[in-house]
Backbone:
């Protein structure tokens, strides 16, 4: 019998698609940021990655079952500490910049920019959603957050294609953070 | 006997090996690294094949009898 959490890939797939229809759905993705951190803080380790990560399951499905992965070994430098923590630092910097631009819209300094930025550089116009029902900063955060989610999904798909299906998990910033939290929490117990 | 060996210093604790192990011989130690119960491991290489970080190797091990 399959467990309920083995279907969470459906949630991830629906989430990514929903952003194309209404950018405000991007907010739901906060679940994927807060839940893993909370679970590791309360001492559950990487149970989010191990069980509940819909994105990981989606890569397993696409790369494994649908054979879209070449299953090669990942280059050793990607699993090195400096690369993983470096990528986390880069990711957090970009996240902070995104929060700051949300603040500038909240503040009234800037106007809402209806673009989704791919790979931190390519700006895609995304102006088919009517966001007038919410404050501009709420919409700005949605655009920024969806950019983060779409960019990381694309990176994950690229490495899924070239290496093992769940290659994203090796350098996933959330995974690096939850492992780091677990290391701090259980530092006395490590062999 | 062949047994799975995990490079725990570079393991990312993603849990793919644990999920795929047909003998439930692998567990994730407090979200830090994977560990193998050598009494259960049959050296089938499934974990070695699926590990996204490629930190598992199945090696010949001497077993004290």
Residues:
């Amino acid at each position: 019998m399959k467990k309920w959490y083995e279907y969470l890939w459906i949630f991830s797939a629906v989430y990514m698609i929903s952003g194309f229809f209404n950018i405000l759905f991007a907010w739901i993705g906060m679940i994927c940021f807060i839940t893993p951190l909370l679970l590791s803080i309360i001492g559950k380790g990487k149970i989010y990655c191990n069980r509940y990560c819909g994105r990981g399951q989606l890569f397993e499905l696409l790369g494994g079952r649908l054979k879209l992965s070449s299953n090669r070994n990942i280059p050793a430098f990607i699993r090195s500490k400096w690369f993983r923590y470096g990528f986390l630092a880069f990711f957090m910097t970009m996240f902070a910049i995104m929060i700051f631009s949300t603040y500038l819209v909240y503040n009234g300094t800037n106007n809402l920019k209806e673009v989704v930025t791919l790979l931190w550089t390519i700006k895609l116009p995304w102006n088919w959603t009517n966001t007038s029902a919410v404050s501009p900063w709420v919409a700005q955060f949605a655009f920024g957050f969806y950019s983060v989610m779409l960019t990381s999904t694309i990176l994950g798909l690229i490495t899924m294609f070239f290496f093992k299906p769940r290659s994203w998990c090796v350098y996933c910033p959330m995974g690096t953070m939850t492992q780091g939290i677990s290391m701090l929490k259980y530092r006395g117990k490590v062999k | 006997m062949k047994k799975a060996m995990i490079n725990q210093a570079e393991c990312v604790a993603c849990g793919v090996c644990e999920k795929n192990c047909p003998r439930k011989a692998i567990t994730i130690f407090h979200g830090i690294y994977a560990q193998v119960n050598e009494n259960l491991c049959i050296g089938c290489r499934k974990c070695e094949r699926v590990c996204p970080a490629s930190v598992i190797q199945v090696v010949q091990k001497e077993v004290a009898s």
In short: The mean pLDDT of chain B is 93. Helices of chain B lie at 16-20, 46-50. Strands of chain B lie at 2-6, 26-29, 33-36, 56-60.
